[in-house]
Amino acid sequence: YYATSDVLRPQYKARIRWCWKHCTPYRGDTENHFLMYYGSLFLMAQAWPDLPDTEWFMDKSSKEIYDESKEYLDHWIDETVRNGQEEWDSPRYGYYYITPLALLAEYTKDKRMKHRFEMMLEYELASYAADYLNGSYCGAHSRVSDECAIDPHAAEIETYGQYFFRVEGGDLATLDTLAAKHPDIAFAAMTSFECPDIIHHIATDREQPYEQFSLKRGRQMIRYMDKWSEDAEGGILHADSEDHAPVYKYDYMTKDYCLGSMQGGIVQPIQQQSWSLVFNSDKHHNIITGLNPYVSDDELGMFFPEYPSFQLERISAVKKGYTNENKWEGGSPYERIYQDKNVLVALYDLPDSEKYHHVDLFIPNNIAISKSDNTQSFHGIRGSGTDTYFDTTSGCVCPYSDPGWEYFRFDSTLVGVYMLTKYATYHTEAGICLRTSERTPGYVIYCESARSILPTAFEQQLCGISIARTNDKIYSKEDIGRTIDIPLKNTKQDNSDLLFKSLYLESKKGSGILTMRYKGAERVLDFNF
What we know:
Helix content is 29%, strand content 26%. The longest helix has 22 residues, at 62-83. The chain has 14 helices and 26 strands. By secondary structure, the chain is of the alpha+beta class.
C-alpha cells in the first residue's frame, strides 16, 4: 500500500481499506507475530488517521489503534534492548523481525518512532552479524526448522545476510537470484535503509577469533514453573520475575568454524537448537549438532494455553516433526551443556520414563572420516540387543562401538568427537547419526583449524588420550587436562549482567545502549529517549 501509493488504482486502495474494516488479521501469540500485527496496525492507522471505530475490524478508532500499537512497539523495543529478545537468533523467524522493522523505519512519519525503528533494525542486524559465518547463522537458536537445524544454508534468513552483508546496493543480477530464492527480500530492497559499514565489517571480518557472551530471554512460561525450575546445574533454570528463563549464549567464532551453545534445558518449545558446530563452507549440511529428541505434553503445556493433553494430539498437525524420534530440533530438560572456546561437553541424565531414551549426534555426509585404529566404521540402525545392532549396509549384526574418539575433517576444520558411552553409527539421508542409549550418555566436541595443525598430528594428539569424568569436571586423562579441562559449571552465567560482550558488541543489561566497535570505529545505539 505504501510503496505503490502513487500508482495504485483507486479501486485497489478501496479494496485494501475494505479489508481492514471487515477482515480480522491473525495476531498470534508469539513475539514475531505481535511485531508484525502491531507494526501493520501502526502504519495503516497512520494511513487513515481520522476514521471512527465503525471503520475498523476491532471497533476502535484510528487514533485508538495508532496509540495502542505505538505503545506496544515502544514496549517491545525497550524490553528487547534492556532484557534480551524472546525469539532470539532464529534462522527461520529472523526475517519476521527484519521485514517489519524495515517497513516501519521507511514509512513511519513520527520522527521519534522512525529513529527508534531505524536503530532497532540496526540492532537486529548487528546481533545477526556477530553470529554470521559466510552465509551461515551460527550458535544456538530459539526457533529453527528441522531442515535448517542440519543445514544452515537452507535457512530463510541467509538471503537477508547475503543482501545486507554482501550485495546491498550492488549487483542487480545477484539481487535477482536472492529474490528468486526468497521473494520477501523485496520488502527490504524497496526501502532506503542501508546497512552501516561497521555492521558489514562485523559480519565479514573473521581474521581474529573471538568469544561472544550474550543474554536472551526464554519463551514465557505459563505452567509447571515449580516442576521445571531446578537448579542451574540440573540444566533447568529458575524463571525470572516475568516467567522468562534466562538464556546464556556463548559462541567461539573463527575464520574456519563457529562453536556455539546455550546452557541446555528447555527455554523454547519444539524448535530450540541448544548447540552447533558450523563450518565456514558453501557446502550444504555444514554443521555438527546433537540432541535428546524430547517429546512431552508437559513441555507443550508449559508454553501453550490449551489443555496439555490436547496439545500432543494437535501438535502433529502443526509441527509435524515434534513427535519424531529422529528429529534434529528441540530442547531437553535432561541436557546440560558446557563450553570453553573450541571444546564443548554435553551431558544427559535420561530417566527410564523418557519416551525416546537416546541421544543423537548429526555428522554430515560430505565430511571426511578417519579412525586411528583402522577398523571399519559400521553404519546401521541400532537393534534390540544391548551389545549389538543391525547394520543395514552389510546386513550383519554388529557390535556397538566402545567409548572413544571419532575423527572428522570438514574443509579447513578438524574435529574430534569423544562418545562417553557405547554408541551405534547409522546412515541418514543427509549424514551419519551417532546414537547412544545409555542412562547417562554424553560426548565431547574438540575442534582445531587445519591451518594450525596437520590432520595426522591432530589425530595422534587425541588418540593418545581418553576422557575422564568427575563430579566437577571433564578432562583429558593422560595429559592431565592440558587438551581438555571443562568445569561442570555454567560459566556463561558469569556475564549475566551483559546482553552482549565480545570483540564487536557490548551492552549492559538494563542500559538500553548497544555499542558496536570495529578497528577503532564505534557506533552507539542509545534507546533512552
